[in-house]
Amino acid sequence: MAAKDGAACPPGIRVLIPEAEVRARVQALGAEIARDYAGGELTVVCVLKGASLFTADLVRAIPLPLTLEFLGVASYGADTRSSGEVRITTDTQTPLHGRDVLVVEDIVDTGLTLRFLIQALSARGCRSVRVCALLDKPSRRVDASVPVDYRGFSGDDLFLVGYGLDHAERWRNLPFVGVLEEPESV
């Protein structure tokens, strides 16, 4: 089966957000972020691994001076539900004190990882910490006070793959966002 814009759609995965729609929304987010940070410098912190593809496209859509950092955080493992335990697996290379920081996440589910990140980055003395998420699942939020300043798409409680999102490290390379109908054995 093929996705709407021609990409192959593997068995067990249903296209939810086609590639062209993802591309258009990323461009719109980049323009919004550029407008909000006009005249300043921005440090974009990509949350690995899931946000890597989204971040790569997003930073190209932000015509501002910016620096790019990476932060690895884990809370899922090979399961389809968050463990609730958040840990930093890879830290940024540059001090963030005094910087305007934009955290780029692939998906905000319970909000526990994001709350942890905002607290950790704020403790480093960032001038500001804002969040851009490709996908947001507000119905799953444990802490409703966790902010998502820039939101690509809001969605239901489905397990999503593609465009950086994975199940057990698979399916990140799909150019669209899809629903994993039946998680395969790992």
- Helix and strand run: EHEHEEEHEEEE
Give the structural class: alpha/beta
Care to count the β-strands?
9
Oligomer: single chain
How big a fraction of the residues is strand? 25-35%
Number of helices: 3
How widely separated are the two ends? Answer: 23 Å
For the residues shown, what is the average pLDDT? Answer: 87
Stretches where pLDDT falls below 50 for ≥5 residues?
A: none
| Overall geometric form | globular
Structure description:
It contains three helices and nine strands. The protein is of the alpha/beta class. The strands form two sheets. Strands 4-3-2-5-6-7 form a six-stranded mixed beta sheet. The chain has a three-stranded antiparallel beta sheet with strand order 1-9-8, covered by helices on one side. The longest helix is centred in the first third of the chain and has 18 residues, at about 20-35. The protein is globular. It starts with 12 loop residues before the first strand and ends in a 6-residue tail after the last strand. The model has no long low-confidence stretch (mean pLDDT about 85).
Any descriptors?
186 residues, alpha/beta, 6-stranded mixed beta sheet, 3-stranded antiparallel beta sheet, 3 helices, 9 strands, 21% helix, 29% strand
